[in-house]
Amino acid sequence: MYFAISLRKGIVYIPTMGKIDRGFYRGVEPVGVVAVSNTEALRETIAAAIARGNPSVPFLSRRDWPPPVVLKYAAVRSWSAFERGMMLWSIEKKDGSFQIARQRKQIDGMWKDDPEHIVSCPSNALINEVVALIVTILQEATRE
Q1: Which terminus of the chain faces fewer neighbouring Cβ atoms within 10 Å, N or C?
Q2: Which domain, by its residues, includes 11?
Q3: CA–CA separation, 141 vs 5, rounded Å?
Q4: What is the sign of the dihedral through the CA atoms of 35, 40, 43 and 45?
Q5: Helix pair angle (39-52, 127-143), 10° resolution
Q6: Model's pTM, two decimal places?
Q7: CATH code for the domain of 116
Q8: Cis peptide bond upstream of 66, omega within 30
Q9: Please, which residues bridge with residue 97 across strands?
């Protein structure tokens, strides 16, 4: 399981991450949008994203890819505009445990895990514990 969370101007964006048959993901509807300060709504939105999982989506050629789904919710026209002031996390479930990694933009423009900001949950962690940890990470990031 994989999903991405963006935090921009106090708003959290969580698109459903559709899995392409070739092992890649792209954001699709539905998209959860919630204020980072609204703890209960944020918990519910993250839990819903986890519950949706990664539905299969068709492979599209590069020219057929639509713009990132979060742009319309953020009322911006381009990914570069969305990236300004954005923080990004990836959440993956590997071998039965969740890993939460803050992403850092690289020189080549790609987003990669920041090794200084990776949190691994124990394999016996309950979903509500994982969700609470993600909420804490997002809310602490707004105070940085």
Answers
A1: C
A2: 2-143
A3: 12
A4: negative
A5: 130
A6: 0.95
A7: 3.40.1590.10
A8: no
A9: 94
